[in-house]
Amino acid sequence: MKAERIAVLTSGGDAPGMNAAIRAVVRTAKAKAEKENRTIEVVGIRHGYNGLVNIGEIIQATGGYDIENDPQKNAILMELRTVSGIIHKGGTMLYTARSNRFRTPQGVALGKLACKVLNIKGIVVIGGDGSFAGANDLCTGEDAVHCIGIPGTIDNDIRCTEYTIGFDTAMNTAMEMTDKIRDTMEAHDRCCIIEVMGRNAGDLALYTGIAVGATAVLIPEKVNTMEDVVNEVSDRIEETRKTGKEYFIIVAAEGVSFKLGISTQTIANAIELKIKEIIKRERESLSELERKALEVEDIEEKTRVTVLGHVQRGGCPTARDRAVASQMGNHAVELLLEGQSAKIVIMKDGRITNCDFALSRKDAPAKPFDEKFYAVAHELSI
Which of 155, 157, 203, 321 is catalytic? Predict the structure, then answer.
């Protein structure tokens, strides 16, 4: 019986849970093969689309490709035991990359050539919207290869799905880091802006902000000018100081600074000046005796910035990310074996389903912003 071949690759930024999805792809394929009396091989493409392009270049240069004897190991045959002991690991065992070469027609042609020579009939692509754009190129035109996408990005910014693999883990990591920073901010009565990832979507900042009890949450969906941001945050701090609180945590998505064209530190500096003005006004309302007692003290109300950065992408995936990634990997293989293509496995109304690639594009309808949840963050931050 001739073996059928499918492949799996991870592309773009890594996200906790990608390994769980890879494991699900391999084991679902093997389980389906045994149940349906088929022979299905799974090829792991390493380093994302770069691996496909590399294989295509080798084929062009030598006339063929031998998986077992490729010194670069651009591809590997994956068995049940290949994916043992990876479900709890962050990162991706297949490695990942952003491939500029694959964004060209020549790169796509090399990728299709690699699939043709390797007899790969379908590929599961785990990544974000850029990865799906590449998959869409693979599955259209001459020598098209069936492609199914699985959303893997900590930003939760894929338009057509409620949830992306890695979001829950990143949120918990950001929460844990912020809890630690809170200790030192409270000890010094200071203000700190915690910058989390999320260039185009503020979900990570919003959920983290609620989880840590932030005084304010800054997200790209709700900011327009630096003046508005500074006034909103300083007004919130002034109101909160009246209740006796003297340290403040602000959670900001990195997309805020990109949208405003300024650094988070610049925002922090402006907020710091506002806080000093607030304290001066508070002192002016004190009695002469109380003011004299404070005259020897300078106002040292520093506003710190902590950029959490790539720590948010690492670490063991949470139970939710492992479970959702496993469900999505399973459904992706089912779609491929049914002959489906150009589909993304998504979560809708809490259930795993699928939609067309077109709905993930940046010009597709935006995912509805949860105004109610944003309002909750504001109400609870006093």
Answer: 155
